[in-house]
Amino acid sequence: MIISKQAKERFQTNPAQFIEEEIKEFTRTGPLNRLPFINDYIIWDEPLVKFADGDDPIFSEYKTIIASTHLTPHEALAKAYSKSSKAIPAHLSVISWILPIPDETRKSNRSEMLVPSRLWSHTRWHGEKFNEALREHVVELLTEMGYLAAAPMMQSYFKIDHNERGAYSNWSERHIAYAAGHGTFSLSDGLITECGIAHRCGSVVTSLILPASPMTAKSPYSNCLFYVGVNCEACIKRCPARAISEKGHDKKKCQQYVRDIGYLATLKEGYDNDRSVAGCGLCQTKVPCEFQNPTKKMKKKTK
Ligand code: B12
Ligand code: SF4
Ligand code: SF4
């Protein structure tokens, strides 16, 4: 990667602004953010970008909340460079982005009752390929600038395990996004951000020090209507697998359903993806949290 003199100057003047602009530019212009077989349809809207302090105690808390195997930013970066945690800089930052799903894709999924729409499914398959390219781009950019950087989800050590509740990984992108102040969890498990729940997310750990974004959420669930006392059960009704109830999200039921419809989707015309990753996301569309933080409206009404 060749970085121009002007880009280096922009980086030195304001690294945080530079990183945010680069992520947005890569999304705006990246060929992988388009579906050439659907008139260059754009997969992702403009990303939201935030930063977490690598020393935030929440990362150690995840060892209890998620699993002891969940990596802290220090562990994730050290492992990527095959070094001990002590051998890498003491202070780190985590860059976290949200890739919002555009209106047309969301609308197409709203009318579905069993299998995700073709566009939604392409978001899961082709969209994640773009997300991978974005992770690689950010890592390359930072290493070219002389910093250590790694995208834990792209590392060979990234893994998904299972416990009695279902699947969990050693680098949960949603928990990283929560730490960066992007939003909160919900009854359906999805992360409700300022652009809603219909999105995918990604992250990179770096030795570049960036200003931590403020954490505005009052609690880990405060953007979900159900948890702020509103009788919202829209996601419960939307889930064809009955995987969501007032007790929360049953990951095992959800995973089984997603696997089954992956197969069904490959039988439908135009779903050109691996059958295990056709997606579903019916609980993320035709719901009040689809493209906004629904509790914001409430706050306005009660003012
Ligand atoms: C394994 C996996 C699955 C599994 C399990 C999902 C799950 N809930 O973990 C299955 C196959 C079911 C699945 C399904 C889907 N997935 Co998936 N999946 C993953 C993967 C690879 C790992 C998730 C992980 O590590 N979870 C860790 C466990 C522990 O999380 P959890 O059980 O939800 O955690 C709860 C507790 O920790 C709780 N909690 C309890 N106490 C406390 C206290 C505090 C302080 C906090 C913060 C939290 C907390 O909060 C959480 C929510 O309830 C990630 C990619 C990644 N690397 O992150 C994508 C990911 C989670 N999937 C994603 C998506 C989009 C989907 C689907 C919509 C399918 C699709 N693409 O159409 C469905 C939606 C399911 C749902 N309702 O959430 C997105 C989610 C984005 C979003 N909008 O929220 C991710 C992040 C991929 C990405 N790169 O964007 N997925
Ligand atoms: S549909 Fe309602 S209850 Fe379900 S996650 Fe969204 S706001 Fe929460
Ligand atoms: S992704 Fe599909 S199966 Fe899983 S909880 Fe949402 S609607 Fe239900």
Summarize the structure.
With about 300 residues, the protein is α+β, with helices and mostly antiparallel strands. It contains 10 helices and 12 strands. It has helices at about 5-15, 15-30, 60-65, 75-80, 105-110, 120-145, 175-180, 235-240, 250-265, 295-300; strands at about 35, 40, 50-55, 95-100, 150, 160-165, 165-170, 185, 190-195, 200-205, 245, 250.
Structure write-up:
The chain has 303 residues and is α+β, with helices and mostly antiparallel strands. The chain has one domain (5-302). The chain has ten helices and twelve strands. The chain has a four-stranded antiparallel sheet with strand order 3-4-10-5, sandwiched between helices. It has a two-stranded antiparallel ribbon with strand order 1-2. Strands 6-7 form a two-stranded antiparallel ribbon. Helix 1 packs across helix 2. It is globular and about 50 Å long. The termini are far apart. The model has no long low-confidence stretch (mean pLDDT 94). Residues 65-66, 116, 124, 131, 153, 160, 166-169, 171-175, 178, 185, 188-191, 197, 199-202, 220, 249, 251, 254-255, 258, 279-281, 283-284 line the site of cobalamin.
